[in-house]
């Protein structure tokens, strides 16, 4: 827990900075748009309806959508103007959060201007004011407290939604929530939730001071609120170093997907580089999605991460049909990734983490099931639990086509909850991961898949084009990881996190010491 708390200032500052930028941009867009719409009553419902429609898009989906959008825009701008735009990190998060913050500010701007007393407007006109003078000297000052109240609401929304920015590579307090859920460290989840809640309250109260000063013409409240906002902005700009620092060069960015094994392997890679390449600095970017992470590696926004041959074969190379033997698949992947993307497969770590169907050992014995083929006859009476991706993956389509699997019901859920659901009898079968330490800990059994429809899932270290080209000594250091972690060792490391409650960094240090 102490290791998590060391990182708290840096992630809090990053979260606050992201939220303040999003609020500033949202206000900069929404207030002028609201003023424009308020002068055109026929168009105002359309403008507000469009902003409201954006709020109906699930926040995580909107964040994920921004990644390919910015990648497309970035590719075009790089070709035309030579300007590169990052497709992961703060860019997509800031864009999505700005869109989420527009509705309350826009709505309150239109409402505040519409609520100005008509008699006041008439008096201003009678005094000879033009429409522009009446707007800026009379209507806008009177509506400003209502507009700032919309900013208060937007602040709470944006700070809460910013926790999801972790999924697109932006540092935020969501790091504690995502990683804590996956490693079943609920103290860490609580730290992330409490810190995000505290930031939301502080920011909302600060903006409320500004609102009160405007509404009641209290100069002290107004100046105090503005000074507090300036103080928060300065605090967010303070560099709290949470990355391992080794020199003046840009850090080597190590990516990780959003499950325990990836957190452990990312820390192992960081520690290995620190030890084998003195002077290099590393930064771990965790809790990213599979496709987001690979696209980031291609774009040199991530330098190194561990992926799995089956995922690369089916999702990246889009290969279908019978799967080749393990060694042939690995050799073809090495050649194809180097030729098509400039990506190097530095090392095969020595273990496989394949998708597999698992049951409680007692249930499997009772039903007389040891193989997937035997599961097919009782599947209509059973319920299947999976992670978010499995039901949309080629492996699931191949299993259903080859074995005729048809379950009574299927449930997609967070991988950390999937194992608990099976252990408690809430589902009957899950799409497990073969190197997961919880399989043995929870007395589960993996059903044998005899027809080879699920490809091999050997863990491999991928190195991005820029790092492979510019830092060959790092590539050579990573090559020395070939065959250093077998399946038993990986299950033990995973179990130390999932069952014993150790942090991924502590587990990685133990492995490196051995």
CATH topology of the largest domain: MetI-like fold
The overall pLDDT average reads 88
**Mind telling me the C-alpha Rg?**
27 Å
Please list the strands of the largest sheet in the order they lie side by side: 7-6-8-5-9
Structural class: alpha/beta
Helix content: 55-70%
Main sheet attributes: strand count, strand direction, barrel closure: 5 strands, mixed
Please explain how this structure is put together.
This protein has 514 residues and is an alpha/beta fold. The protein has 3 domains: 2-237, MetI-like fold, CATH 1.10.3720.10; 252-352 and 462-513, D-Maltodextrin-Binding Protein, domain 2; 355-446, D-Maltodextrin-Binding Protein, domain 2. 61% of the residues lie in helices and 11% in strands. The protein has a 5-stranded mixed β-sheet. The chain has a 3-stranded antiparallel β-sheet with strand order 3-10-4, sandwiched between helices. It has a two-stranded parallel sheet with strand order 1-2. The mean pLDDT is 88.
């Amino acid at each position: 827990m102490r290791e998590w708390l060391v990182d708290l200032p840096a992630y809090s500052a990053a979260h606050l900075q992201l939220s303040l930028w999003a609020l500033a941009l949202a206000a900069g867009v929404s207030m002028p748009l609201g003023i424009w719409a308020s002068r055109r009553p026929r168009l105002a419902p359309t403008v507000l309806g469009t902003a409201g429609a954006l709020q109906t898009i699930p926040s995580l989906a909107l964040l994920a959508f921004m990644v390919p959008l910015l990648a497309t825009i970035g590719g075009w701008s790089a070709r035309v103007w030579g300007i590169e735009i990052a497709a992961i990190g703060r860019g997509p998060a800031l864009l999505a959060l700005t869109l989420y913050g527009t509705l309350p500010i826009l709505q309150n701007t239109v409402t505040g201007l519409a609520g100005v007393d008509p008699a006041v407007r008439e008096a201003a006109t009678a005094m000879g004011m033009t429409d522009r003078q009446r707007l800026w000297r009379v209507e806008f000052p009177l509506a400003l407290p209502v507009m700032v109240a919309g900013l208060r609401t937007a602040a709470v929304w944006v700070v809460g939604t910013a926790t999801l920015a972790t999924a697109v590579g932006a540092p935020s307090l969501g790091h504690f929530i995502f990683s804590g859920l996956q490693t079943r460290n609920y103290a860490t989840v609580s730290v992330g939730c409490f810190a995000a809640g505290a930031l939301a309250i502080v920011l909302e109260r600060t903006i409320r001071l500004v609102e009160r000063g405007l509404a009641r013409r209290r100069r002290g409240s107004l100046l105090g609120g503005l000074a507090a906002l300036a103080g928060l902005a300065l605090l967010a700009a303070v560099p709290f170093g949470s990355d391992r620092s080794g020199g003046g060069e840009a850090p080597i960015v190590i990516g990780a997907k959003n499950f325990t094994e990836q957190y452990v392997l990312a820390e192992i890679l960081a520690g290995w580089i620190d030890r084998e390449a003195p002077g290099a600095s590393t930064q771990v970017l965790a809790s990213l999605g599979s496709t987001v992470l690979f696209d980031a590696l291609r774009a040199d926004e991530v330098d190194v991460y561990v992926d799995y041959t089956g995922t690369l074969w089916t999702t990246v190379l889009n290969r279908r049909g019978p799967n080749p033997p393990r060694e042939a698949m690995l050799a073809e992947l090495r050649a194809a990734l180097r030729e098509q993307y400039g990506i190097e497969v530095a090392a095969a770590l020595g273990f496989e983490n394949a998708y597999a169907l698992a049951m409680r050992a007692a249930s499997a014995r009772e039903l007389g099931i040891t193989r997937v083929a035997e599961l097919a006859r009782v599947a209509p009476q059973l319920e299947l639990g999976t992670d978010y991706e499995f039901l949309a993956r080629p492996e699931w389509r191949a299993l259903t086509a080859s074995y005729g699997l048809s379950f009574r019901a299927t449930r997609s859920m967070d991988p950390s909850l999937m194992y608990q659901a099976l252990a408690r009898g809430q589902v009957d079968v899950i799409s497990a991961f073969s190197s997961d330490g919880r399989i043995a800990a929870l007395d589960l059994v993996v059903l044998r898949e005899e027809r080879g429809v699920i490809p091999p899932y050997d863990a491999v270290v991928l190195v991005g084009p820029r790092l492979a080209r510019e830092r060959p000594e790092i590539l050579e250091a990573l090559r020395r990881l070939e065959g250093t972690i077998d399946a038993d060792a990986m299950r033990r490391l995973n179990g130390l996190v999932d069952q014993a409650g150790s942090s991924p960094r502590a587990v990685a240090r133990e492995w490196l010491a051995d």
